[in-house]
Design a protein that fits this description.
Length: 217
């Protein structure tokens, strides 16, 4: 597998052509799910350590390799989560990825999901200062949240079908997915009890890629 550059564009970060559409045949869906799994595994086991990557110059708009990988994870996770049937108000309502607090992605995440869909739902990126119960996010990424705090943000959406994803520099636990840096690579842990509290079910295929799976007590 070729090494990823230290400064990337959305096209560099492990592109998958097409989306996983509910109406597609089982064979096509299985093939695409396999491709997505391979890409997630590539994110987890890529040959180039994160700490070996030089930081981009201050004037550069490019995102670091670490956050390019994390951004790619965010929208690739969606097909591996079972969302409640009533999650979307309309058949083509947007699938919202919310970045809460400081945004480490710049415009990378927004550019990466442009034109992509989760089924019939176009991806949409929202930036929020705080996370509230009515924020209408399907995925919420939390890193540094100066105006709220991670624990308070998690409590705000407890019991709602929001996939909470915590950055690797967040010491708090309680999110469903927690990014970690292991041997210089971006990996993740999954808390299935937290997922159950938010009425979400994580695919066994994704669980098999997790560094740690915390089951319900």
């Amino acid at each position: 597998m070729p090494n990823l550059p230290s400064r990337t564009t959305p096209g560099d970060a492990m592109r998958v052509h097409g989306s996983v559409l509910p109406e597609e045949g089982r064979g096509v869906r299985a093939c695409r799910m396999t491709c997505l799994l391979a890409l997630l595994l590539a994110c987890a086991a890529g040959p180039m350590p994160v700490q070996a990557m030089p930081s981009p110059p201050p004037a550069s708009p490019a995102v670091s390799l670490e956050y390019a990988v994390k951004a790619t994870y965010l929208y690739k996770l969606a097909p591996f989560v079972n969302w409640p049937a009533q999650e979307f108000a309309t058949p083509d309502a947007p699938f919202r990825i919310c970045v809460v607090g400081d945004d480490p992605f710049g415009d990378f995440l927004e550019n990466a999901v442009a034109g992509r869909r989760f089924g019939n739902h176009p991806f949409e990126v929202r930036r929020l200062d705080t996370l509230t119960p009515d924020a209408n996010c399907q995925i919420a990424f939390l890193g540094h949240v100066p105006s709220q705090g991670v624990a308070q943000a998690l409590e705000a959406v407890k019991g709602r079908s929001v996939l909470t994803v915590l950055d690797s520099n967040v010491p708090d636990r309680g999110g469903i997915i927690q990014f970690v840096i292991a041997q210089g690579r971006v990996r993740f842990e999954i808390d299935t009890a937290a997922a159950a509290r938010n009425h979400l079910t994580i695919s066994s295929k994704l669980l098999n890629l997790a560094l740690v799976v915390r089951p319900p007590p």
